Amino acid sequence: MAVVFEYSKSFPTKHVSDLAKDIKGNYLAFSILRRLGVNFMRMIPMKEQEQQSASEILDISVGRQRLIVGTSSIKKLK
Question: How much is the pTM?
Answer without folding.
Answer: 0.79
